[in-house]
Amino acid sequence: xxxxxxxxxxxxxxxxxxxxxxxxxxxxxxxxxxxxxxxxxxxxxxxxxxxxxxxxxxxxxxxxxxxxxxxxxxxxxxxxxxxxxxxxxxxxxxxxxxxxxxxxxxxxxxxxxxxxxxxxxxxxxxxxxxxxxxxxxxxxxxxxxxxxxxxxxxxxxxxxxxxxxxxxxxxxxxxxxxxxxxxxxxxxxxxxxxxxxxxxxxxxxxxxxxxxxxxxxxxxxxxxxxxxxxxxxxxxxxxxxxxxxxxxxxxxxxxxxxxxxxxxxxxxxxxxxxxxxxxxxxxxxxxxxxxxxxxxxxxxxxxxxxxxxxxxxxxxxxxxxxxxxxxxxxxxxxxxxxxxxxxxxxxxxxxxxxxxxxxxxxxxxxxxxxxxxxxxxxxxxxxxxxxxxxxxxxxxxxxxxxxxxxxxxxxxxxxxxxxxxxxxxxxxxxxxxxxxxxxxxxxxxxxxxxxxxxxxxxxxxxxxxxxxxxxxxxxxxxxxxxxxxxxxxx
Length: 490
What we know:
- The chain has about 500 residues and is of the alpha+beta class.
- The longest helix has about 30 residues, at about 285-315.
- α7 packs across α8 and α13 (about 285-315) packs parallel to α17 (about 440-455).
- The strands form four sheets. It has a five-stranded mixed sheet. A two-stranded antiparallel ribbon has the order 5-6. A two-stranded antiparallel ribbon has the order 8-11.
- The chain contains 17 helices and eleven strands.
- One of its GO terms (biological process) is organic acid metabolic process.
- One of its GO terms (cellular component) is endoplasmic reticulum membrane.
């Protein structure tokens, strides 16, 4: 009995200490809902659709507020003006990357997406420069995408107009593009190793978007002590890194420093140039993490956007018909689409932009962190504080995009039917941490979608009015519902 009493007293003291720590720091931070001891505000957040919860909080606390995920405070920025101020005007101050416990287990702060400080700056600069250089090589990135678009069309023809789930084939195309840049080669769409990799990408993206994973990131001790789908994520990441390591070893054995073939070769040459620099960020471990980042990010985000895009075009046959009419008029049937065509195809350009705006793929962005103490909108944001920026609040702003919940390419067209740019279009984020592969992704989305619609009519298995476009997951990223369609050759 005495032992139980002692345990109760200890637990009570811990709860009081937790509550005191949470409340003591709130004087300088933005306002927000009162957190509970230990668990913070997690009971007030819908982990199936975090962005919806953030919108509801913003109506009460304004464009900048504080939430506690467990005992850890996080500043949330909501609305175009506040997001732009944080990521663009104060881009350097908020250029840190918040930690994801599940990601930390796999890349240990390396790579180009989740690294920080000098490491991040040098790896990002190198990655951007190398990707641009490949655009000026023997085969430009545009040519690589066009070649892959041709292969994609040939693969879709093999369906003979029969119903099919497009998940793997739409994932294979962008994956092959990034493979040609990183590894110098592409895979056959039926290659079993390739299909296994694609399966791991898809499985991880779904699991990382589950409510369970949001709980794991809030209470990271779970990762070490409880069973669950997080172990599958770690296993898949390990398998992907093992594949990358195998490719790196092959490149080391056949490297010609005077003739780099791909991204890995360029990185290995950089390592050789800096081999006497003991503080160099260019190591085998960094190469592994950076290649894995580019490999995964360059595949999953684009393939999910393509898959969601075709679903929306099935739902809206009027939009599809207008795009196909424009393709017929500008490109015809006898040549492949190219990026120069885009300036003459305002409706198609608007359609691609609207797909990205509407699906809002990464609704709350990849979290940032303050690299020093910052005064932001009369609040003091301490060094190391996590920052969530709501891209939903920008991409679905009803003043910039009337009826934002409706899919309408007119959001990006002026009264004369010309393409209209919008500062609110930021699916790749903005500022210092915006997506390294933005240029590649924009090219892929335009060329893949126009090539598909140039060659096929899309036929739904159900009435277009009955097609459901609501995502099945909306935590870290939005995952479209599974569906089938028929690719009818034109």
